[in-house]
Automatic annotation (TrEMBL):
<comment type="similarity">
    <text>Belongs to the class-III pyridoxal-phosphate-dependent aminotransferase family.</text>
</comment>
<dbReference type="InterPro" id="IPR015422">
    <property type="entry name" value="PyrdxlP-dep_Trfase_small"/>
</dbReference>
<dbReference type="Pfam" id="PF00202">
    <property type="entry name" value="Aminotran_3"/>
</dbReference>
<dbReference type="GO" id="GO:0030170">
    <property type="term" value="F:pyridoxal phosphate binding"/>
</dbReference>
<dbReference type="InterPro" id="IPR015424">
    <property type="entry name" value="PyrdxlP-dep_Trfase"/>
</dbReference>
<keyword id="KW-0663">Pyridoxal phosphate</keyword>
<dbReference type="InterPro" id="IPR005814">
    <property type="entry name" value="Aminotrans_3"/>
</dbReference>
<protein>
    <submittedName>
        <fullName>Glutamate-1-semialdehyde 2,1-aminomutase</fullName>
    </submittedName>
</protein>
<dbReference type="GO" id="GO:0008483">
    <property type="term" value="F:transaminase activity"/>
</dbReference>
<dbReference type="InterPro" id="IPR015421">
    <property type="entry name" value="PyrdxlP-dep_Trfase_major"/>
</dbReference>
Length: 444
């Protein structure tokens, strides 16, 4: 049941909860992308619980949810196979003074699912895994610089990446100088960078695919460039892992990186990530290498048994139930419906759906076709009022046709208001407060 007026939802309990959150937790959330500044003013629901493709806020409103858990909950909330696997382990203990047999079982399952990797080490979050890849690359090459793909929004909370963003406070300039950037899809520019910093670049790190497909031959060309210049090629598969194929983008496109990192969909909301790759590199953090030892992902909770059980259940479900294909089917239906609704309301050029069907995002453009946070705010307000919680249009596999059809209807209603705002050349009357804000900005 929706509590709403003509301006949208009324969320008194969520507003109170947000006040409590901000009083105790910097930013009011444990991930900046979940902050209430990412939502319209006074319309940031605080979640009570979720089931399948739906979540309920503390005011009792139900939403169809997209982008679940920042793309991590791809099978839907409280998925029965995952919950049962976790429940089995909870009664057997979660953490011991020596490795659990679950650790080797999880490693065997992962490497069978991602056969392009030879070894794997688990952790709790993506940042630790990508930073471990950078450390291995620096150790193996003896080089200081990290080359990141500058077109990709996020790699790690650690200094080597965050120093490149507008939120670089607290990070020494000397650290920032060791990270350089290359553009996605441009081999010539990347080669120029590697030549300019000849024998200084330890690794190239990028998402192998994004909201556009890699240009033909690009990933293979990058592989050849890395080999020619003696640097390590790292694929950040946090998003592409499972959503592109069970074996990630490397499995889909057939280009094997030296190291790759997985997370998000791997645990269906449980905390697990993975660093995987070539044995010769991974063993630098082991006990069988004769070189200087690398301190590699030594975390107390990295092998928590129930999270590894969740990961195994996720992989089994993906393979046995064809989850990746279902994500694509659902995404294609949603994208087509949203595009048709936007076009029918005369905003087809302004509300734009982009990305692979399993990983859809939307852009909100103003009258001059420039990205607009104010029009995004208007759009999000109308979606929320219609019971759709959608910072993106990233689907989970438990959405059904009724969910998709309802979403398209709500989008159509939002697009009608969008058209009114464009005709007025000013969305302000429809915002009811400040605009949503980008995550990376220098000042709050």
């Amino acid at each position: 049941m929706h509590t709403q007026d003509t301006e949208g939802l009324l969320l008194p309990r969520s507003r109170q909860a947000n006040e409590r959150l901000h009083a105790l937790i910097p930013g009011g959330a444990h991930t900046y992308a979940k902050g209430d500044d990412q939502y319209p003013e006074n319309l940031a629901p605080v979640i009570s619980h979720g089931n399948g493709a739906h979540v309920w806020d503390v005011d009792g409103n139900r939403y169809i949810e997209y982008g679940s858990g920042l793309r991590s909950v791809s099978l839907g909330h409280a998925h029965p196979r995952v919950v049962e696997a976790v429940r089995r382990e909870l009664g057997r203990g979660s953490n011991f003074v020596r490795p659990s047999i679950v650790e080797v079982e999880a490693a065997e399952r992962f490497l069978a699912t991602v056969p392009t990797a030879e070894m794997v080490k688990f952790a709790k979050n993506g940042s630790d895994a990508t930073t471990a890849a950078v450390r291995l690359a620096r150790a193996a090459t003896g080089r200081p610089r990290v080359a990141i793909c500058g077109d990709h929004p996020f790699f790690s909370v650690d200094d080597w990446f965050i120093g490149t963003t507008p939120m670089s406070a607290g990070i020494p300039a000397a650290t920032n100088e060791l990270t350089v950037a290359f553009p996605y899809g441009d081999l010539a520019a990347t080669e120029e960078l590697l030549t300019r910093y000849q024998d200084e670049v330890a690794c190239l790190i990028l998402e192998p695919a994004t909201h556009t497909e890699p240009p033909p031959g690009y990933l293979a060309g990058l592989r050849a460039l890395a080999d020619r210049h003696g640097c390590v090629l790292v694929f950040d598969e946090m998003i592409t892992g499972f959503r592109w194929s069970e074996a990630g983008a490397q499995g889909l496109y057939g280009v094997v990186p030296d190291l790759s990192t997985f997370g998000k969909a791997l645990g269906n909301g449980f905390a697990v990530s993975a660093l995987a790759g070539r044995r010769s590199l991974m063993e630098r953090g082991g006990l069988r290498d004769s070189g200087d030892r690398v301190f590699l992902l030594s975390t107390t909770h990295g092998a928590e048994t129930h999270s590894l059980a969740a990961a195994m259940a996720v992989q089994t479900t993906y393979v046995e139930e064809g989850i990746t294909a279902r994500l694509h089917t659902l995404g294609e239906r949603l994208a087509a419906g949203v595009r048709d609704a936007a076009a029918a309301m005369g905003v087809g050029e302004h509300v734009v759906v982009r990305g692979r069907a399993s990983n859809l995002v939307f852009a909100t453009l103003d009258g001059n076709l420039r990205p607009s946070q104010r029009y995004r705010t208007l759009f999000l307000r109308r979606l929320l009022a219609g019971g759709v919680l959608a910072p993106s249009f990233v689907v989970s596999s438990v959405l059904d046709d009724a969910d998709i059809d309802r979403t398209i209807d709500v989008v159509a209603e939002a697009c009608a208001v969008y058209r009114q705002a464009l005709d007025a050349d000013d969305p302000t009357p429809w915002l009811a407060g400040r605009a949503v804000k980008p995550v990376f900005r220098r000042l709050a």
